[in-house]
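Issue: copy button drops trailing tokens. Both records pasted manually instead:
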Amino acid sequence: MNEAKNFFSTEETLIVILGERIRKRRLDMGLSIEQISSLSGISRSMLGLIESGKSSASILTLWKLSKALRFPLNELLPDSKEDRITLTRKNDLKPNIQFSGKIQFKEINNYHEQVDFFEVQISHGKFNKFAWIKSQRKQNIIIKGGSVELIFNHDSAILEEGDSASFFGRSLIEIRNENTDPAVVYWISFI
């Protein structure tokens, strides 16, 4: 099997970045996919495919989206520098450790403006959404140790060691650790 198939090509990467930019702009404006579909004349299913990076958009579609999103077309298009590979050596990282009541978080990634990477230690208790969680950003967590319960707008989930979750920050309401031992969570937040 060809290992190259496991990696995004430059074209696929650009399509994903474009979709993320369109979704971010739509969310920043507080609009649903249905509303943008109505404003742009592009079907909801096509918008979903574009935002998820599963489909490319024609120049006409991009022009319609730029008008509906009131955003210059060139601002939607990825910059070539975004396709660069950035390496950070472990000795270059200087974690920022902070305490907030029974929660300790250590910023692991402090070198890229579009990604926040924390190791969070959550003691026993119930906690409102952390202040550093941006509502419009995609959140990905991996439970390194212990377990936590995430309370969302219309759902909840108990995650144990090795489990992971992905969600937008705006949907998270509360985090609970019912155990006496602290839970350790890798928390990745990105645009």
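Record 2 (pasted manually too):
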Amino acid sequence: MTPVDQTVVDSGFGNCHQAVMASLFDLDITQVPNFILYPDTQWWTVYWYFIYGLGYEWVGTGYPGQHSLADTETINGSIEAVVPSRTFPGKTHAVLIDSAGVVVHDPNPNKLWQGVNVLESGDLKSWSIIEKRNQ
């Protein structure tokens, strides 16, 4: 995993998700769609096809208390996760965590989540379950 920081830090229009995906798959941020620019009805399709094109597939969303983070496959040692924004109250933020719940990459340049165990703190909202697809 090569950490890529977000280039846009803005309430509701930041590109943390784009930066997380670039980091997860060792890509330049320009190689990843900026999902926030797509309407609610389209961003998911763009996300799904982007992952599929890399040889992976989205299997589901994990939630604390319903799924086991420890059973989730990592990609380059990381898992895409959602936590509350520490910069913009009431918003969410995409980060990369390890299988224990520790934030291994916070794409916000302020790095307020870096090193925090969001599973232990109770701040983990959800994570993406992405697996290598059968080709």
